[in-house]
Amino acid sequence: MGRILFQKYEMIEQLGQGGAGRVFLAKDKNLNRLVAVKEQTVQENADLCREVELLKELKHPGLPEVYDFFREEESDYLVMEYVDGISLRKYLKKNERVPETLAVKWALELCEILIYLHNCKPAIIYRDLKPENIMIRPDGSIKLIDLGAALRCGFGAGREQLCMGTPGYTPKEQWQGTRGDKNWDIYGLGAVLHEMLTGENPMLPPYERRPLREYDRGLPSGLERIVERCTSESPMDRYQSAEQLKDALCHPGRAGNLPQICWQLKRVIVGVSFLLAVLSLVLPLWKGVPEKEIPFPFLKLPLNLLGVWIFLRCMLLGGAHRGKKRAGYFLQKQEKKIWLTGKKFSGLYVLLVFLLGGVCGMQLPAGNVVYAGKNEDKLWVEMRDEQGRKLLLQDGAVYKPEVSVRFELPVLRLPEEEIRLQMVAEGQDGNIYYSRVFLIDGGEKK
Fold first, then answer.
1. Which of 37, 118, 160, 361 is 20 to 30 Å apart from 239, CA to CA?
2. 441: annotated active-site residue
């Protein structure tokens, strides 16, 4: 570029541009070193002045150092340490995910930076923790850049009225309240850690954050619990300090031990109940059952125990994934008009529980949920996800499959004559798409 600022900073290239101004790479001709120069017009320099106010007092290896601040013509310029490396956003675009060990290491470094900021007098709330603001240096360490959104808790009501942050990385109360909270940064760190481990950007569709082990069953349950606690909707359920979060990351097993023990205990209870049901059936047969006691009262105890096993199986282990509240969750809500059965054939378990409990009249909680093919005069079609779980959808509901979706035609529901089956799809652009034609012979149903 060749432009000289303040008679000593030679502009080389523009590094980035945003709502807070432009950032340039420059060379300090007097000290022969590379620097980052942040430019902002005088009319919009409130954030830049606040950033200078913060940075000039901070000394931490995870934060950029301030070298100079000056005004030239109609703009203000902040000269900072140039951080060589790439942003975490660029790293994720190239590698999709961060290896577990490295992600935890970087999360611990972020904890150290937050501990330093939060322990300042008054405390500094960063407010905009996201991959774009995290730089990865060539030696593998990280630096947190751009403190334009940072908030001193002692600035007063006038400063705190300004809401800043990035959707997906900030809790909802950050956009509603005016007084800063360290919890905001805890939420942001949890969101960043989740994205590092899963590669899912919360600012892109489907705009959701599911438990870690739904993306990768190889990730520790303790780490999943840490992320869930960080990103809890309730501020009281999150870690109350960066020190607590750091301790949890150093000992992730502590966060996962109790849920894991509870899960194993539930499995033991269900297993024992099933074993008792089997023994109550087999042992009398082994010893010999009088003819007058067959089938009853011989089957009374086995059937009762089988009913208990089915009930415990549904209540204790009924649910699609670990780490979620399972008790009573026969259906998992995916979207306002979509319900997903928790496990394959779980609908059979639920039906048996309803029959045993005498509650057949209960309605599903989804309102007007209907099965495809509910009417007898229509072809019976069932829709399942890639794991074989049945989907219950309202008419017009939008389902976004992760990998694939499967349509099943039960043989017993097919007409006996040969039918021609062809799928027809209509795109949003109005185009019609046809599948191959399949011939299916219903044959005689037994």
1. 160
2. no
Torsions phi, psi for 273 (to 5 deg): -65, -40
d(CA 194, CA 364): 33
Q: Could you tell me the CATH superfamily of domain 86-250? A: Transferase(Phosphotransferase) domain 1 (1.10.510.10)
DSSP assignment of 49-91 = HHHHHHHTT---TTSPPEEEEEEETTEEEEEEE---SEEHHHH
Buried b (16+ CB within 10 A) or exposed e, 248-258: bbeebeebbee
Q: Give residue 309's Cα distance to chain centre.
A: 33
393 touches 381 (CB < 8 A): no
Can you tell me whether residue 224 is helix, strand or coil? helix
Interhelix angle 300-317/252-287, nearest 10 degrees: 170
* First-to-final CA distance of the chain: 83
* Segments in 132-251 forming alpha helices (H): 157-160, 172-176, 182-198, 212-215, 221-230, 242-250
Question: In the predicted model, what is the mean pLDDT of the chain?
Answer: 79
- Of the residues 128, 181, 185, 385, which is catalytic? 128
Residue owning tokens 């990103």: 231
Give the integer Cα–Cα distance in Å for 53 and 364.
Answer: 58
Of the candidates 238, 274, 63, 228, the one whose C-alpha atom is nearest the C-alpha of residue 150 is 63
In the chain, ranges of CATH 3.30.200.20 domains: 4-81
pTM: 0.58
The average pLDDT across 250-276 equals 76
Return the pLDDT at 93. Answer: 96
Residue range 164-173, pLDDT digits in tens? 789 999 998 8
pLDDT at position 312 is 83
- Give Rg (Cα) of the chain: 30
Contact 340, 391 (CB under 8 A): yes
Considering the domain delimited by 4-81, tell me its CATH architecture: 2-Layer Sandwich (3.30)
Query: How confident is residue 284, by pLDDT bands cut at 50, 70 and 90?
Result: confident
